[in-house]
Amino acid sequence: MDSDITTVMMQNEELLRAVAEKSEHETRLHTLIAQIPAGYFRLDVEGHFLDVNGAWLRMHGYDSADEVIGKHFSIMQVDSSSDSARAHSDELQHGGPVPFGVFKSRRKDGSVGHHTFSACPGANCVNNVGCEWFIIDVSERIKLEEEKMAMERQIYQARKLDGLAVLAGGIAHDFNNILMIITGYCGLTKLAYDTAEKHIPQIEKAVERAAELCRLMLAYVGQATLAETRVVMWALVEQVVHLQKETITRNVAISSHYSQNIPSIRGEAGQLREIVSNLIRNASEAIGEAQGKITVSLTKTTIHPGLSEMDHLGTVIPAGGYVCLTVADTGCGMDDEARLRMLEPFYSTKNTGRGLGMSSVLGNIKAHNGALQITSQPGSGTTCRVYLPVRSSDAADNESIQQISPVTWRRGATILLVEDEAELLLVMKMILQKLGFTVIEASNGKEALELYRDNAEDIALIMTDIEMPVMDGYALFGELKKLKPDLPIIIVSAFADTVITSKIPCDNIAGLVNKPYNFSQLQDVLQGVVDGLPEFLNADCRPKVKSLPDSF
Question: What is the pTM of this model?
Fold first, then answer.
């Protein structure tokens, strides 16, 4: 009997000791939770607050726990991010995963804070304990990140506006000079009309300069027009290097390295020459008056899938075969800021920028679906690598380009001319009349559509601009094709062919004419359309180029 009493007393003592230890642990835990900087709150299974600590109260602007205890979790709710946190709370009741992420949380005054949440299931769901949450206020961090992003956007916009100001100023300067040449020769011709034969070629040269400036601007934005031919790159580079040796200063030596087994590529020879010439000129300017060397090389290279070969912006260069043009100099080199800015129009590290320069180089490279790499360090020179893609058919393409005999020009067709610029409409009408056409004119797509409906039996073909008010060329094209699917329509535009053919199937276009164009270029396109010979149109909607095999 006494032993039984002793046993019970010992068990009671152990129980009391366990209760005391548990109470001590709970007190210690409660003290710890009350003092930690992280916010803490506990919910019941219905989502009502059972407990919060001081950090949580401070984060949410409450003075005491009494303002919160018994209220529903929804007092913190802001939007779907809070719904997500509530859903996690429900998942925890059924042993779901412990969430961790950034959520929005509403404060007492209605303002919104950002917190990282983590949670664990309550210790005793039977006693109506739902789950316990710990949160860390990251509102200040989010605010600083947003301010940083806003500042970066402002800097980007400022740099963009600065670049546009330089671009606009440079273009205005060049165009003013060109217009002054044209105006000057026009004035001289008006004073003595018998001098027109001597002055008109100079006016045409000035117009061609303006056209080249427009092409460079289109190249700058990656919308250059390509009249593709098979280009033998080693021959093109050899030609450019030879010419540059005659023009750059004698203190700069140029060496070139390439073999004649470099595959040919499809591209626009003039733009490719500009790429090589500009890179060599820039390298020469970087060397300045010091003794220096420029090395030009061509290699055949392959970028395999999975290899992280990057361009100048850190973008991965697509896998495939390339002809790699490398121009390296021993000049002054550049820091990171100058290396990035060198691609801006009219920018130069040596003096005031004189043109689109490297920005047009980059545009020409983009037009050929190529990539550019630039490595440079102050005092260590600069190396530029241009990757030009080789199509699978390019390497085996050794066919000669046959010269096509001219055909007889046919006259007398009626053409509907659509152009919104009144002066251009007038001069184009006179040119077409000189070519023997009867011209019906319209100043926008809507007017042209009405005229065609009234004169469909007489109109043999349409020549329309793309950018027009009321109804543009794209819409007009679609409406005309609905009326007569086989109606020949010539598109006139300053945009690259790829811009047009991305919206109108190439097979539906009778011909493409790029502004500015001359008399003979227009006649070539019209001749192919009027004669109705499909062999005069190739895959990119243009009359076939009559050229010899040495297209470089």
Answer: 0.43
Spatial CB neighbours of 118, under 8 Å, sequence gap ≥ 6: 98, 99, 100, 133, 134, 135
Q: In terms of Cα–Cα distance, which of 484, 481, 540, 486 is closest to 511?
A: 540
Which residues face 372 on adjacent strands? 386
CA nearest neighbour of 439 among 416, 467, 470: 416
The residues, any chain, with a CB within 8 Å of residue 290's CB and separated by 6 or more, are 251, 331
Environment class of 287 (CB within 10 Å of its CB; exposed 0-12, middle 13-18, buried 19+): buried
Distance CA 104, CA 98 (A): 18
**Six-digit token string for 343:** 């691609």
Gap between the Cα atoms of 459 and 457, Å rounded: 6
To which CATH superfamily is domain 229-389 assigned?
Answer: Histidine kinase-like ATPase, C-terminal domain (3.30.565.10)
CA dist 263 and 9 (Å) reads 99
Burial of 147 (0-12, 13-18, 19+ CB in 10 A): exposed
d(CA 367, CA 357): 16
pLDDT in tens, 308-339: 788 877 788 888 889 999 999 998 888 777 76
Tens digits of residue pLDDT in 487-524 = 899 988 876 666 777 788 777 788 888 777 777 677 77
Mean pLDDT of 268-274: 81
Count the alpha carbons within 13 Å of 319 in the hemisphere toward its beta carbon: 5
Over the stretch 415-433, which tens digit does the pLDDT of each residue have?
Answer: 999 998 888 888 888 888 8
Report how far residue 391's alpha carbon sits from residue 405's, in angstroms, rounded to the nearest whole number: 30
**Parallel/antiparallel/unpaired status of strands 371-376 and 382-389:** antiparallel
- CATH 3.30.450.20 fits domain 36-137: yes
What pLDDT, on the 0 to 100 scale, is given for residue 384?
Answer: 92
Interacting residues of 490 by C-beta distance below 8 A, sequence separation 6+? 461, 462, 463, 464, 509, 510, 511, 512, 513, 525, 526, 529
Q: Which one, of 226, 230, 272, lies nearest residue 497 by Cα?
A: 226
What are the pLDDT digits (tens) for 115-140?
777 766 654 444 445 677 788 888 88
Residues 500, 491 contacting (CB under 8 angstroms): yes
Superfamily of structural domain 414-536: Response regulator (3.40.50.2300)
Where do the structural domains in the chain lie, given as residue ranges? Answer: 1-27, 36-137, 154-220, 229-389, 414-536
Radius of gyration over alpha carbons of the chain, in Å? 37
Report which of 208, 215, 278 is spatially closest to residue 244, judged by C-alpha positions. Answer: 278
As beta bridge partners, residue 543 has: 537
Q: Which amino acid is at 405?
A: S
Q: What DSSP designation does 127 have? A: G
Integer Cα distance of 8 and 10 in angstroms: 5
CA angle 35, 40, 46 (to 5 degrees): 150
